Amino acid sequence: MNAPPEHRKEHSPADRPARLAVGVVGAGRVGPALAAALQLAGHRPVAVSGVSDASVRRAAALLPDVPLLPPAEVLARAELVLLTVPDDALPGLVEGLAETGAIRPGQLLVHTSGRYGTAVLDPARRAGALPLALHPAMTFTGTAVDVQRLAGCSFGVTAPDELRLAAEALVIEMGGEPEWIDEEARPLYHAALALGANHLVTLVAQSLELLSQAGVAHPDRMLGPLLGAALDNALRSGDAALTGPVARGDAGTVAAHVAELRKHAPGTVAGYLAMARTTADRALAHGLLKPELAQDLLGVLAEGESR
Description:
By secondary structure, the chain is of the alpha/beta class. The protein folds into two domains: 5-181, NAD(P)-binding Rossmann-like Domain (Rossmann fold); 189-306, N-(1-d-carboxylethyl)-l-norvaline Dehydrogenase, domain 2, CATH 1.10.1040. The chain has helices at 5-8, 31-40, 53-62, 71-77, 90-99, 122-126, 145-149, 164-173, 186-213, 219-237, 245-248, 251-264, 269-285, 291-306; strands at residues 21-25, 44-49, 80-83, 108-111, 130-136, 154-158, 177-180. α6 links the parallel β4 and β5 (130-136). It is elongated and about 65 Å long.
């Protein structure tokens, strides 16, 4: 559980990590932003690794004058190493660094994957590293705005008991709020975030495209207030915030939607039907959709799925 704010403020200077030399392995959208946030807290970025042209540009923009070096040399210079590579690449990276002797005893090794806890760092732990999993629950752009967005951002934190204070202090120094996640709960935690954030982007992008096809000149202006209100209502009230034709049981309207989508944007039909069925199930379970209206609605959805 999150420690209450008043408790976190009671940390003594001894509980906080000393000013550390920070290295970044993987200059994607996340690593340079976190290193820049740590720099604002007084830590010292000393090296970053990146391969693509985009990585080099991000590192130059967010960490100017920090040298771009191979991963092993980043670890040689840093006391705190941020491993900010894609989830699927993380286990192999950790194993490779451990096998080549790049990891030093006492070195803080932090990965930012939502999927993994600290077990993925076991090869590094056996080499003497201090393992932390600090996942910012935020979408990143790869620009300086990301550093500002870390203010108040929740971090999913998994750490050994003896490193909990250090993990908490690092998150707070980056402007975030630590939320403790058990090792075995990490995949479920990450799936929940992906379901909400990643799929939301897809849904919004599809909605923007359809509004443009319908002749709306400024679809972003139309959707902004609507989606902002819907998100606020959902965060406050959960399923009780459901509105629209599915929750009302308007089978005819849903059938018209499906017909129009098949005509103008067939690639959106499967997603619409899947979300409509899930919405209907939740609306029924919470007493929002009347059972007598659900039969026709579910029939329309079944017919759509069978075509």
